[in-house]
Amino acid sequence: MIDTLVPFKKSESLTIGIELELQLVDLHHFNLVMEAKDFLRRLSEVLHTGAIKPEITQSMIELNSSVHSSYTALLNEVTILRNALVEEADQTHIGICGGGAHPFQKWREQRIFQIERFASFSEQYGYLAKQFTVFGQHIHIGCVSADDALYLCHAMARYLPQFIALSAASPFHQDVDTSFDCSRLAVISAFPLNGTPPWILSWKKFETYFEKMVKLGIIKSMKDFYWDIRPKPEFGTIELRICDTPLTVKKAVELAVYAQALACWLLDKRPTLSRDIYLTYLVNRFRAARYGLEAILIDPIQQTTIPIADDIINTCDQLESYAANLGSQNALGQIYGMATERKNDATWLRQRYADLNSLNDVVRSQTEIWRCKEIS
User: Fold this and answer.
1) How far is the C-alpha of 107 from the C-alpha of 232, rounded, in Å?
2) N- to C-terminal Cα distance for the chain?
3) Residues 6+ apart with CB under 8 A from 255
4) What is the pLDDT along the chain (376 residues), one digit of tens a residue?
5) DSSP secondary structure letter of residue 17
6) Phi and psi (nearest 5°) for 238?
7) Residue 1 in 3-state DSSP?
8) Domains in the chain, please, with CATH?
């Protein structure tokens, strides 16, 4: 079935919501366990806000928050959702954790969750569908107009490498240390419609572009675009899709309100957009995934380089008053601290492996920190 491009739904500016793709693991060997169908059935009997959904393979689920305007409200809801997941998982002897990739699962052993959309995806992309057993965070930011959404999609591109480095939580993949802080992006990059949206700045022209892509048989709906950031017209938002799923809900919410404050600053200051930002985008994207908070970015506008940690610190300084107005200054302080210390979740995971010398025990630690349990 081919969808038409739905009208852009007007949202309250700067509202936020998140989606978190989560790992289901067995509590003996800490490998992924294909229990999503039964687990979701049990969860359907539990009253909760937001939504908890299946994902592409049967060892994944997706947690969706409601729409919020503040850091506190979003954190409260996802904490309650996290607690509900943990409580139900305890009853079924399943562990839940964040992280952008499971350290040692074998993609060929995964099974596609059998709903029409995922079956069609598997038919189209073959073995890539099972390799898509990686775990990301999506951040939605409300926009009052479609043109604002397109402006933000391109204005935010300058800062997306920051989000890669800050959220990076997939150093291990298929039993090895990949030397990347974020190995998940290598999987995403295999798909033909990944990267950034085309350089289109008005919604009318975007509608024409969408219609052409449909007529060419390339897409059927907006869901077929796997861009790092994209407009989401049915929600009236932009959607950042670049982050690994963090190891804690608190960090996930901190990343969301960092994006919110950044969008607030961009809409207020309206810096002039330059297509030249895309001259170095893929290189900066790669460097952020490879080196995390030790990466060096190339600024094509100023024709200079800057350590990504310094770039984040400078951005935090710019956003201080905006975060204060939004009630997220404490979260901004956590982002600032990560950049200052140059430590992300990938750093933590590598340290756990150095301490434990076992990837199974690393995953055990991930399940413990997800539920805010002391790490033994």
Assistant:
1) 29
2) 51
3) 137, 139, 163, 166, 167, 243, 246, 335
4) 456 789 999 899 999 999 999 999 999 999 999 999 999 999 988 888 889 999 999 999 999 999 999 999 999 999 999 999 999 999 989 999 999 999 999 999 999 998 988 998 899 999 999 999 999 999 999 999 999 999 999 999 999 999 999 999 999 999 999 999 999 999 999 999 999 999 999 999 999 999 999 999 999 999 999 999 999 999 999 999 999 999 999 999 999 999 999 999 999 999 999 999 999 999 999 999 999 999 999 999 999 999 999 999 999 999 999 999 999 999 999 999 999 999 999 999 999 999 999 999 999 999 999 998 654 4
5) E
6) -105, 155
7) coil
8) 16-367 (3.30.590.20)
Task: Decide if 81 contacts 49 (C-beta within 8 A).
Answer: yes
Q: Max Cα separation, the chain? A: 57
The overall pTM is greater than 0.70: yes
Please enumerate in sequence order all residues whose Cβ is within 8 A of that of 282, keeping only pairs 6 or more positions apart, or say none.
195
For residue 330, how many C-alpha atoms fall within 13 Å in the half-sphere facing its CB? 8
Q: What is the CA radius of gyration of the chain?
A: 20
Amino acid (1-letter code) at residue 6: V
Q: Is 218 helix (H, G, I), strand (E, B) or coil?
A: coil
By C-alpha distance, which of 71, 259, 67 is closest to 157? 259
Contact 57, 133 (CB under 8 A): yes
CA atoms within a 13 Å half-sphere pointing along the CA-CB vector of 91: 11
* Listed residue (136, 133, 137) closest to 60, CA to CA: 133
SS3 101: coil
Tokens standing for residue 263: 């969008």
